[in-house]
Amino acid sequence: MKKRLPFWFYIGLLLNVTAWIISWTHLRPFCYYMFFPLWFGFILILDGLNYAKSGESLMSKNIRSFFFLFLLSALFWWIFEIMVPSTKNWYYLSSKPLSVWESKLLGSLFFSTLIPAAFEISGLLKSFNVLGKKIKWIKLSKETPTTFFVVGIVAVALVSIWPNYFFPFLWMIGFFILDPINFWMGRDSLTKDAMKADWTRAFYLGLSMLVCGFFWEMWNFRADPKWVYEVPYVGFLKIFEMPLLGYLGYIPFAFELFVFYVFTQGLFKYPREGYVPLVAGVKARESLFWKAMISLLIVFTVAAGSMIKIDFNRNDEFLSADFYEQIDGSGEEFSGEIYLCACGSVSGNCLVTNSGDVFMLTNENGERIRFPLGQITLKGVVKELVVGMDELIIK
After folding, report:
1. How would you class 176 by CB atoms within 10 Å of its CB: exposed for 0-12, middle for 13-18, buried for 19 or more?
2. What is the H or E stretch that residue 158 is in?
3. Most CB within 10 Å of its CB: which of 79, 180, 296, 322?
4. What is the pLDDT of residues 31-80, one digit of tens each?
5. Of 253, 249, 260, which is closest to residue 300 (Cα–Cα)?
C-alpha cells in the first residue's frame, strides 16, 4: 500500500453496513431508500482502497468529475430502460406504493451508482494485476468495426420484432453500435485493442462487472424495493434472484458502460485525460463547457425517465399449494404473489406465473385471462383473498 486508508473509506464502511442492515431487516420506512446509501458507501470503500493502493483514486483526482459519473450513469440506465419494455426480463417490486415521480427520482438516484462502482472495481483489480499486466488473445481484422456496427443495427431490429428469442442482444447492442463509432472518431475503443490482440481492458472490465453483479444481486435479494427476473428458457439455477446463465450478461454490459462513457467523453471533452482507470481519455483541456453538458444531461435524464413507468409494488403474502390446484387444473405454477394489475384499458387482479406470463383474474367469476408479463403494469397490493368451490374472488 502506498498510503494509509483515507477517512472516506471509513465513512463508506459505516454507510454501507448501516444501509445493508436497514435494507435487509426491512426497517420501515427507511428501508425503501437504502439502495443509494448502501452503494455510495460501497463506492467510497472501493475508492479508499484504490487511493491506498495506488496513491490516487477517482474521487481524489477530481471530485467534480467523480460526481459527474453518477449523473452519466443515471442517463445511461434510463436509456437502457427505454429498450427494456420490448423484452421485460425483470420488473421492480416493493411493499410501499410509490408515486410516479417518487419512483422516477428514486430510480435515477439508484441507477446513478452503475458506472462509478464498475470503474472503481476495475481500477482496483487492475492495480493488483489479478489477471496479469497484459492479456494477448485473438487478433481481430480491420473489418471488425464495420461488422460490429452492422450486427448492432440488425440486433436492434431482432430485439424489437422477436424479443422473447433475441433478448440477450439487449446487453450487447450499445457496444456493437457505439464502439465502432468511437473507433472511427479516433477515440478510445475496445475493438482497437482487440485489433492489436490486446484484450487486457476487455477482460478486466468483464471481471469487474461480474464482481459488481454479484454484489448487486446479493444486496437486492432481501431488499425492499427490489427487482426480480422473468427470463425465458434460461430462468433456472438462480443465485439470489438472477438465473445462473444471466450473470453472463454482465460481461457485455461492462463493455456497454465503457463505450458509453468513452462516447460522451469524446463528444463533450470531459472528464479530462487520465481520469478513469483503463480509459486513455481525450486529449483536450477541460473547459467551462462541462456546465452546459451537465445541464443537457439532466434534461435528457428527466426526459428519458418520463417515458418509463416503474411500479415498485408487491404483496408479500404467498399462496398455498392447495390454492394452485383450485385456480387452475392445468398445473400452471405461480410465483405466489398477488397483484393489482392493468393491461391497456383492462384492469383486474393478477397472479404471475413461473413461465413468465400473467393470469388476470376477474372479481366477478374468477375467469382468467393470460397476458405476457411485458404487457402488464403491476399497480398495487391485494388485501383480501376469497376462494370458493367454483369461483375465485380477490378484493
Report:
1. buried
2. helix 144-161
3. 180
4. 889 999 999 999 999 999 999 998 888 888 888 888 889 988 988 888 77
5. 260
